[in-house]
Amino acid sequence: MAPYTLRSISDTHRELNEKKQAVSEKLRAAQEPQEKGEGSIHSSDEPQTSQPPPSVQPLRDVEPREALKVFFDRIPLDSISGLKNGQVVELEARDCVGEAIKSLYRCRIMGAPLSDKSCIGDVGVTVGNSHIGVVELSSMVIWALMELEKVQMEVGKIGNHNVTTENRVLEEADKIPEENGFLRSLQQHSTLWNTKVASMSRSFRWVPFLPVQPGDTFLRALLLLAKHTLKVVPVMDPIGKKVTGFITEDTALRLLSQCSGLEWFDAIAEKALHEFNLHFYRFEDNKSSRGMLHLNGANTVLDAVSYMWEHKAECVPILDHKSEKIIGNMRVTDVWILLDNADVFKRRRSMTLQELLSIDIESNHARTRDEDERDAMISPAALYLTEDWRPKMSDVATCKLDETLKKLMWRLMRVHADCGFLVDEDMHMLGLVTLHDIITQFIPSLTQFSQAPPGFFLT
User: Fold this and answer.
1) Spatial separation of the C-alpha atoms in residues 161 and 168, rounded to whole Å
2) Which CATH number fits domain 271-442: 1.10.4160.10, 3.90.1150.10, 3.30.420.10, 3.10.580.10?
3) Would the pLDDT of 355 be above 90?
């Protein structure tokens, strides 16, 4: 692992341990008057019951979520080393979709803040608050792919792959690796390529831009993630008026996991999943609005992408079409493979998800990372939305209802997943739990929560 990554992780871990001790002492000090009062009723001749040392004495009358609230409110975001000197790629609303996709892809950036400089000078609008949202590369790719399909259908090219312009473009793409099939195909349709990023808001709405500052606490970031059902909270330098990094749901989960061993955290995390009032998507309730979406291995790549676009889904399980057991999952970030592999893009209408899973496994073997680096608690790349390592589609985080929330959290972190799947003893699907579901278990109840699934497909 790179020294910078190790330093970022170790510094944050050490600082969190110091915060744990400080908050523990503060809460215990508040209880001392009550404990002394109880002790005064004993005669000096009576044997005194030995008390455990302060470091292990249980905290009484402190609700775990309220104690964690105090703890999280003592962790400034600038204690996360990687956020101090970050560089973030930004997009403007007037940028062309094609150039935006190309720029982010070449930089291996998963998303970027979006600003509208044209409104600077309007009442109350300055350079510092011209940001209007955060847009994800995968969302732009899926939008462009769906628009390409519409164009292909309109001109009657589908079904005649040997003579289409698209195939000639793909043949040329083989000679220019960095200009892969998807981008070359998009370039052939100037209307789509030159569409302004802002115009995509007619099809989907990007994440609201609700920033925090380095001096704010981890609690504020958690509350924003939970209340507004966000996937990412930008961290903005109040002086330079620039975004220096992000607190993502995944980053929040990894920071939460570092509280393991803290009794308030464990009081929640070590409960079995069936003890929580999780409003998760149930697999068996397919006819309801909360019914869980799913694909099977016989579906094509295009079927899967279209299905996710239609249902505004960020992650969908892939089931074996015979046994109905889970064999993988399709995430919006997996559309990267359409950019990386021209053959997958070319065969998207005929290639099955079962085939795609095999191709994905092979490509991941070529990108194998050190085990410690993959399991890093907080990766600097995650703070800047950099695509440093994409987990295999066959890597899924599954858990049974009698297993603990902490166990599910560790499995999610290991495979860098956005959601976990509840299964029975035979690996048949029961439901889905998102990172948002998990994060909300560790903070005080809020009066209102959005019930929409988190992500860049908010409507």
Assistant:
1) 10
2) 3.10.580.10
3) yes
